[in-house]
């Protein structure tokens, strides 16, 4: 039975499953006499029962009685399913055949494995699970009952809409079935899939249970810790906690939506109470009892980590809550891997941290920024959503469905590029419908490849390239050629760790294509570029993904390999670069077309309603008020912006464009206005609530004031502590932008932790265009700044006519061993070292970084957050190109000029401001308390170390409770206001 037939069979089954709950004793009654005698027309079930009888889904007993209280057996339900299934060609009275046939669809049937239960009656809970399964959801009974409520198939027995109110243990009767059937029919036809595997409740996380849905429980599940492993019981495990300085958890409670995350930082000592050096890295096995995702970076692409590494004494991990329908208390466990004698107390000891995950409704805000003056740096937080999984391939022999087993070859003989399916066959062992075990070729015309992982010799390729190769192998080349193709193509079928089908083309490349290369990656790049990639004039946006795929392969090569390919295959590498340039031009035109009329630049805000457990509501009918930069719009949740190819949006979004960009950090606010009564209970907590989201727009660099021949080396910290300060890896994009702006030839890029790793050396245009530049790698996490600088200094060219500079970006956690030698080498070669420290000036090793920059005639700057990196790099660009130290223009922005502002009410009022130590033009700080009854002003005296503080008496403030905002003003030596920052009381 092919998939379409199965779909139709299951579609009919949805109506039937509900009508099957009646014995086969009723007597066939002529249509003219189908008047129900035992149900009054005023009865709430009469309309449904009459409909079921008129449609011949149910028959009447003698005397035109419906007998709505009569129960049914499971096998009778299945028999009725078979009678309506046009694809079922066997005897409907054969119970064994019925169960063998329908068990393939994995519908939960108690009689499938236990024949004695085939005559058992069907409970209402059993029906709920079955209804979910025929709709493609594998649910446990509780979630299945909620699924019935969600689809308005039932309202419960008293309208309370709880699990108990549904009466799941009560057997279903003919009257119930008629009502359920009628309601399903009222909703129209349904696309029914069945289940891909035996039912286990694996889709429970897709169904959100309302608060107190189970009346007998509190809705909270606490996962108990093992005996003796209580995270607070330090007295029973003193050895390991003696070596733990402190444990910090950014947020102990997370929203259980699969996205919300929290940083755990553990500061450690060795087993003798000594500090751990920053050039040392220790491995810890980390586990989550509740199955939360643990990773070292907080990015959408960061995967699950089972082993994490310290940056010296500091262990940092991000924990992302799973998507849940109930609150869960979790335990995150850390255990050192193979501790040495220095860490003997860590052996067989576990450090534990407790966290709680709570399902909550959300008003989720994402955004995109379009800036026509720097389109390559536009960005935002829009999540493309999860790529759909393709159906795993299976064939049909007669009436027997045979799943294809992974790790084997499928022979493809045809494909349909419109619906993205292939026709192919695979040798399989299978059992026929009459119970015989046999082997043979099993054919399918419905092998989905549009959302599969597609490869050539192990390298990921695009759908378009995959289709071109299929066509080439099956039909032969399109030009005049003596070779007419093989009539088929071979793919190795596997399933990856996320359950996605993977098809790797085999036997495509001949010896002539591979022998000239030592690396198969080199061969694939040249083969795809030469045989399938069109010339630049013929490139369209349809080739965009294909060009990006080949370019990504090329970018992964080291510089030596690139040079070899450029030398031996200059024409083909030129062809690839021409295609890349053409795509860039086409993308610019596409952005122009898609831009809202009258907007040359914009900030696009996308709002989604998310139910507890993280499921986006796609059919919400209501409006939301969105505010940005002093403007307010009211928009509806009716825009479908889901696009997996362009990585934009989600179904059921509310989208609004603002014709403005605020560079740096700003805020957007959203508030529900018109509510959808269908979701009143789900989103009750969001009523009259304003949600705020930070928006970051990448600032533009200024036009270069000077020009000079330069050689610049970027040395970027990738230690564990730095990744905490730059979890999204903003530095990577900002360095590429800076490389392009300076235009140094050559430009060098290194990343470092405890040792240096070369990323790229080439012209500024090529280095700035490497997509994978400075991407985070899984490597040692400790820090050694001096060693990284030594490597950089030793790798400059000997050209004496270029201005040489190093740009170091780090969080400053490092030792200074060997610093004097590095400074001496840099001074001898005329290399200026510009240092940027990220984080509070009280935590970074300022002395180390200031010594490096001052001794080499470079500049030192400190930024409190990584988003302020732009200002530091702008001043470095001007300093390098003009050969004159330039003030950090981040010191013109209130967010960056103040590391900290605070107003505390004690016996006195303490007013405090810590100024960025790199902002040397700040000579004074003034504070203005803003109130409707009059402002109060103070000049804060400097207390040293860039701290300004004053402690006035409380009585100096009339009506102190009226002060909501405090404005901190930074002043230069002439008393002019440089920048301001608002501090909320």
Automatic annotation (TrEMBL):
Highest taxon in the source lineage: Bacteria
What InterPro entries does UniProt report for this protein, alphabetically? ECM_Assembly_Org (IPR050525), Ig-like_fold (IPR013783), Invasin/intimin_cell_adhesion (IPR008964), VWF_A (IPR002035), vWFA_dom_sf (IPR036465)
Give the residue ranges for region: Disordered: 218-237
| PROSITE patterns, A to Z | VWFA
SMART domains attached here? VWA (SM00327)
Q: Where is the signal peptide?
A: 1-31
List residues of the VWFA domain.
Answer: 711-880
The record's section on CDD domains has: vWFA
Any idea which UniProt keywords this protein has?
Signal
Q: What is this protein called?
A: VWA domain-containing protein
Which species is listed as the source?
A: Solibacillus faecavium
């Amino acid at each position: 039975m092919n998939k379409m037939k199965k779909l139709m069979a299951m579609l009919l089954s949805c109506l039937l499953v509900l009508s099957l709950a009646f014995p086969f004793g009723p007597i066939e009654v002529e249509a003219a006499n189908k008047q129900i005698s035992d149900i009054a027309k005023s009865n709430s079930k009469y309309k449904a029962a009459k409909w079921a009888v008129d449609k011949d889904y149910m028959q009447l007993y003698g005397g035109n009685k419906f007998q709505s209280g009569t129960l049914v057996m499971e096998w009778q339900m299945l028999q009725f399913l078979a009678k309506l299934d046009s694809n079922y060609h066997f005897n409907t009275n054969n119970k064994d055949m019925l169960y063998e046939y329908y068990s393939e669809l994995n519908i939960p049937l108690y009689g499938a494995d236990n024949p004695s239960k085939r005559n058992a009656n069907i409970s209402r809970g059993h029906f709920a699970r079955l209804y979910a399964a025929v709709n493609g959801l594998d649910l446990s009974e509780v979630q299945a009952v909620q699924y019935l409520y969600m689809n308005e198939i039932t309202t419960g027995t008293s309208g309370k809409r709880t699990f108990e109110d549904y009466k799941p243990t009560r057997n279903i009767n003919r009257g119930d079935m008629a009502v359920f059937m009628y309601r399903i029919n009222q909703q129209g036809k349904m696309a029914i899939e069945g289940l891909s595997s035996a039912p286990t409740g694996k889709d429970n996380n897709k169904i959100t249970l309302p608060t107190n849905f189970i009346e007998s429980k509190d809705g909270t599940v606490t996962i108990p810790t093992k005996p003796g492993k209580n995270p607070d019981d330090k007295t029973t495990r003193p050895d390991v906690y003696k070596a733990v300085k402190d444990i910090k958890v950014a947020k102990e409670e997370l929203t259980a939506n699969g996205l919300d995350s929290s940083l755990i930082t553990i500061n450690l000592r060795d087993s003798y109470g000594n500090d751990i050096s920053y050039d040392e890295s220790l491995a810890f096995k980390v586990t989550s009892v509740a199955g939360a995702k643990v990773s070292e970076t907080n990015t959408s692409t960061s995967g699950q980590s089972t082993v994490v590494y310290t940056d010296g004494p500091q262990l940092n991990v991000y924990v992302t809550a799973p998507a849940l329908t109930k609150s869960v208390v979790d335990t995150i466990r850390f255990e050192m891997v193979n501790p040495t004698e220095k860490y003997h107390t860590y052996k067989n000891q576990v450090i534990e941290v407790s966290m709680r995950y709570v399902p909550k409704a959300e008003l989720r805000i994402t955004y995109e920024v379009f800036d026509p003056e720097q389109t390559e740096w536009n960005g935002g937080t829009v999540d493309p959503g999860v790529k759909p999984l393709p159906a795993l391939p299976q064939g049909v022999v007669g009436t027997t469905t045979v799943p294809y087993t992974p790790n084997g070859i499928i022979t493809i003989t045809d494909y349909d590029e419109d619906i993205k399916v292939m026709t192919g066959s695979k040798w399989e062992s299978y059992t026929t419908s009459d119970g015989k075990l046999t082997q043979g070729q099993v054919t399918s015309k419905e092998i989905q490849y549009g959302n599969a992982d597609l490869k050539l010799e192990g390298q990921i390729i695009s759908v378009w390239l995959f289709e071109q190769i299929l066509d080439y192998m099956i039909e032969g080349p399109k030009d005049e050629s003596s070779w007419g193709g093989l009539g088929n193509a071979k793919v190795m079928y596997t399933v990856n760790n996320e359950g996605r089908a993977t098809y790797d083309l085999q036997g495509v490349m001949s010896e002539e294509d591979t022998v000239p290369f030592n690396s198969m990656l080199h061969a694939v790049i040249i083969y795809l570029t030469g045989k399938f990639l069109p010339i630049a004039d013929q490139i369209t946006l349809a080739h965009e993904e294909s060009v990006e795929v080949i370019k990504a392969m090329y970018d992964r090569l080291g510089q030596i390999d690139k040079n070899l390919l450029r030398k031996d295959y200059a024409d083909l590498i030129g062809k690839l670069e021409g295609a890349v340039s053409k795509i860039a031009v086409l993308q610019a035109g596409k952005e122009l077309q898609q831009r809202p009329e009258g907007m040359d630049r914009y900030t696009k805000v996308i709002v989604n309603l998310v139910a507890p457990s993280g499921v986006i509501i796609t059919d919400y009918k209501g409006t939301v008020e969105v505010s940005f930069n002093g403007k307010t719009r009211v928009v509806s949740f009716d825009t479908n912006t889901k696009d997996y190819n362009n990585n934009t949006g989600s179904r059921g979004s509310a989208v609004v464009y603002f014709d403005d960009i605020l560079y740096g950090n700003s805020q957007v606010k959203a508030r529900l206005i018109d509510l959808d009564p269908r979701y009143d209970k789900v989103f009750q907590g969001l009523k009259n609530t304003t949600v705020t989201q930070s928006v970051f727009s990448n600032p533009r660099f200024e036009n270069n004031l000077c020009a000079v021949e330069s050689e610049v080396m970027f040395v970027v910290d990738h230690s564990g502590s730095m990744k905490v300060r730059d979890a999204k890896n903003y530095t990577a994009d900002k360095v590429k932008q800076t490389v392009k702006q300076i235009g140094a030839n050559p430009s060098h890029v290194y990343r470092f932790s405890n040792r240096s790793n070369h990323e790229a050396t080439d012209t500024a245009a090529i280095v700035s265009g490497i997509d994978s530049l400075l991407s985070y790698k899984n490597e040692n996490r400790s820090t050694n700044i001096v060693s990284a600088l030594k490597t950089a200094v030793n790798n400059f060219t000997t050209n004496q006519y270029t201005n040489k500079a190093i740009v170091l970006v780090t969080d400053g956690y490092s030792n200074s061993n060997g610093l004097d030698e590095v400074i001496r080498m840099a001074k001898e070669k005329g290399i200026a070292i510009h240092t940027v420290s990220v984080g509070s000036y009280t935590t970074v090793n300022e002395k180390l970084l200031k010594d490096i920059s001052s001794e080499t005639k470079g500049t030192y700057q400190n930024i409190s957050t990584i988003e302020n990196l732009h200002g530091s790099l702008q001043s470095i660009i001007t300093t390098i190109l003009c050969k004159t130290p330039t003030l950090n223009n981040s010191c013109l922005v209130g967010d960056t000029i103040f590391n900290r502002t605070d107003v505390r009410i004690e016996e006195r009022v303490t007013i405090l401001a810590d100024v960025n130590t790199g902002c040397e033009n700040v000579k004074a700080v003034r504070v203005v308390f803003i109130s409707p009854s009059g402002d109060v002003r103070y000049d804060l005296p400097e207390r040293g170390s860039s701290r300004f503080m004053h402690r006035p008496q409380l009585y100096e403030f009339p009506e102190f409770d009226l002060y909501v905002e405090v404005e901190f003003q930074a002043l230069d030596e002439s008393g002019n206001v440089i920048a301001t920052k608002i501090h909320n009381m």
